[in-house]
Amino acid sequence: MYKKFIVFSLIFLGFFVPYFSYSNSDITNILKGPARVVDGDTLEIKKEKVRLFGIAAPEKNTLIGKRSKEFLEDFLKNKEVKCILKSKDKYNRWVGICYLDNLDISSYMVENGFARDCPKFSKRKYKLEEENAIYNGLILKDYYNLPSYC
Q: What is the pTM of this model?
């Protein structure tokens, strides 16, 4: 009787437990720490590069790209950032929504005119911030066309 119970239990566990287990895709990855700014839409935290979700900033080898990077550096200087990592991109960087305290850094960059909403990925999450930046005369839109991937 005891052997039948053991066999039944093992069969039960073998068939049903996998259906109730979590996969790696269900686990939220969080990365915290001081951030080094790579450019206006990329950070490095604990040697991991993190692409800010849903935005595009000018390349750092342009004047407005340098300003974008400097603006982000000044904002994040010596402060802990928390990133909720979503996935990896084609360059093997994490893509994540990053926060300083409770402020979405992508939103902050767009609202201040140093990045643009990348609607293909953001699903227009930062559209209102971009419209506010344009309304307030922060006209990055006139100097920086969205990359084709957006």
A: 0.79
